[in-house]
# Entry
Amino acid sequence: MPAFNSFGGFGYGFDMLATPIKVSEPVNGTGKRDEHGQPIVNRPDPVELTEPIVNNNNPNLTFENVGGGSIEVGTLAWISRRSDWPKDTLVSTNGKEYHTVGAGQSLNANQTLYQLKEVGGNQR
# Structure
C-alpha cells in the first residue's frame, strides 16, 4: 500500500493562505509581570515569515448570548512548517499581536498548528 501522499506538505493550500508575519520567541524572563499578570520577557529581533494564520470556527461550539441568540466560538491558529517554536512566542501580522498558547503537529503534512491568543485589549 502506498504511503500517504501529502502533495508536498499541502504546499498549494499553505501558499494560498500564507500571509507575512513576524515571529519572536521568548528568551528569558525579567521576573516582572504586566497589568494583565502576564510575565514580561525579553525578545530578540523578530523573524519574518510567510505562513498562514487561519480562523477555525466549529458550529458545534457556541456561546449563548444573554440577550438571545448564539455566537460561534472560533480558534485562531498559525500553521507553521517549523515545530520548535516555544509557548508564548509572539506573532505579529496586520497590526495585531498574538502569542502562542498551545501546539499540535500534523505529522503527515509535516506542519505544526499553534493556537493563538490576542495580546492586549481582550485579555482576561
Remarks:
- The beta strands are 18-24, 28-33, 39-42, 47-64, 70-80, 90-93, 96-106, 111-118.
- The mean pLDDT is 81.
- The two ends are 50 Å apart (CA to CA).
- Residues 79 and 113 are 5 Å apart (CA to CA).
